[in-house]
Structure formats: structure tokens, C-alpha cells
């Protein structure tokens, strides 16, 4: 019997519980994936995010083409920050286009005990160590934490993205320029909101 899908269009979360299927054993069907993409595209159009000269900066599917290690050139780094699970990070970053770490996973890591709560933190690609996000900017850490906690995943805004290294596809998927899956852009009333897996941005700086 088909399951009903409830749509929440005002404050849609970063992903549904079904989208965490690699970690929970659930499967998101093709119809649900297509529906999620359509909702996201509608949200992007509604906020004007894809208008010329505005964020996010787009890319084509070629960025996520098959490489030596899934969509990545190499596996994720060995010593990821905040004690995130390396196996989960590798699956999410390099062998995944639609799924996410569990909602609230970032709160169960060492993130809140180790992150700088008084200044900006740079979040690096878990694969190649390139800077991807710098936060908080234009708000306090407590505001960043509150928004991220509300949605279940670290949530970044346009001014916190290192656009030299980050792109978005038409369906809202957020990726690195080198093929790392990061999360999704799910705009709300404030504008673009990049819901990002902590395991994707727990890398160490590229030397």
C-alpha cells in the first residue's frame, strides 16, 4: 500500500527521515526522489535563487561524474575533525547523491565541545581539505546553532559559503567543485539555506 507524503512548504527541513536510508536501512523510492527534487526546484525559483548574478552558483552534472573513488578522486581523509564516523563520511561524500547523515547527528559528535563559539570557524572538505564554509558570518554562533538545531543539520547562508569551491545543481544538491556531496540548498523565507552533512565538512586544511 503506497505511503502518503505530507508536504511542508513553509519551513521544509533539510531532508526527510527516509532520505537517511544508507544509515537507517530505509529506501527512498524514485517517485519520492523526483518529488523532493521538484519541491526543491520550486523553492529555488520562488526565492529567485537562480536568477542571473545571484547565489547559488550553479554547475552541471559533469562535476559529479564518476571518478577513481565514486564521485571523488580519493577517499575521505583519515583523521576527520569532531570525531565523525569516517565510513559514514566516505559513503555520504563519494557514493551518494540524495541521502544524509541522521538528523541531529552533528550534535552527537564532539562538535559543540571543540568548535570556536566566539569567532568564525572554517569548514573544510572531508576529501581534499579545501575550505567550503566559514561561519558564523552576519550572525552569532548561538544563532547559527539555533537554526542548525531546528533543522537537524548544520545550516549555512550565502555569505558563509566559499563560492570558489562550492556549487549547486538545479535540483538543489550542494557539492564541492571536486565532486564531494555536501547536502542540499533548501531555501526558506530568509533566502538560501544550505543544509550540510557535518561528515562532509569535517576535513583538515589542505597543506
Give an overview in words.
With about 210 residues, the protein is of the alpha+beta class. The chain has one domain (about 15-200). Residues about 1-35 and about 40-55 have low confidence and may be disordered. A five-stranded antiparallel β-sheet has the order 3-7-6-5-4. Strands 1-2 form a two-stranded antiparallel sheet. The chain has five helices and seven strands.
Which descriptors apply to this entry?
alpha+beta, two-stranded antiparallel ribbon, disordered N terminus, Mss4-like_sf, Peptide-methionine (R)-S-oxide reductase
Strand element count: 7
Low-confidence stretches: 1-36, 38-53
Helices and strands, in order, run as: HHHHEEHEEEEE
Give the CA-based shape: globular
> Compute the gyration radius: what is it?
16 Å
Specify the number of helices.
5
Largest sheet strand order: 3-7-6-5-4
What is the count of structural domains?
Answer: 1
Find the structural class using helix and strand composition: alpha+beta
Q: What portion of the residues fall into strands of 2 or more residues?
A: 5-15%
Head-to-tail CA distance between termini: 53 Å
Question: Helical percent range?
Answer: 10-25%
For the sheet with most strands, the description reads: 5 strands, antiparallel
Mean pLDDT, to the nearest integer, reads 82
Protein name: Peptide-methionine (R)-S-oxide reductase
InterPro entries: Mss4-like_sf
Amino acid at each position: 500500500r503506497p505511503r502518503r507524503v505530507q508536504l511542508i512548504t513553509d519551513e521544509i527541513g533539510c531532508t526527510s527521515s527516509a532520505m537517511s536510508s544508507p544509515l537507517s536501512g530505509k529506501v527512498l523510492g524514485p517517485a519520492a526522489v523526483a518529488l523532493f527534487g521538484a519541491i526543491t526546484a520550486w523553492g529555488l525559483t520562488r526565492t529567485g535563487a537562480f536568477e542571473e548574478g545571484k547565489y547559488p552558483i550553479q554547475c552541471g552534472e559533469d562535476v559529479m561524474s564518476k571518478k577513481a573513488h565514486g564521485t571523488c578522486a580519493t577517499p575521505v581523509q583519515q583523521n576527520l575533525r569532531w570525531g565523525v564516523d569516517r565510513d559514514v563520511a566516505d559513503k555520504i561524500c563519494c557514493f551518494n547523491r540524495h541521502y544524509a547523515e541522521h538528523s541531529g547527528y552533528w550534535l552527537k559528535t564532539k562538535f559543540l565541545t571543540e568548535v570556536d563559539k566566539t569567532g568564525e570557524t572554517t569548514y573544510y572538505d572531508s576529501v581534499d581539505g579545501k575550505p567550503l564554509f566559514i561561519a558564523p558570518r552576519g550572525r552569532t554562533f548561538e544563532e547559527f546553532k539555533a537554526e542548525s538545531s531546528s533543522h537537524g543539520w548544520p545550516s549555512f547562508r550565502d555569505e558563509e559559503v566559499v563560492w570558489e569551491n562550492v556549487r549547486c545543481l538545479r535540483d538543489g544538491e550542494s557539492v564541492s567543485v571536486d565532486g564531494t556531496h555536501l547536502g542540499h540548498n533548501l531555501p526558506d523565507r530568509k533566502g538560501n539555506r544550505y543544509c550540510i552533512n557535518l561528515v562532509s565538512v569535517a576535513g583538515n586544511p589542505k597543506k
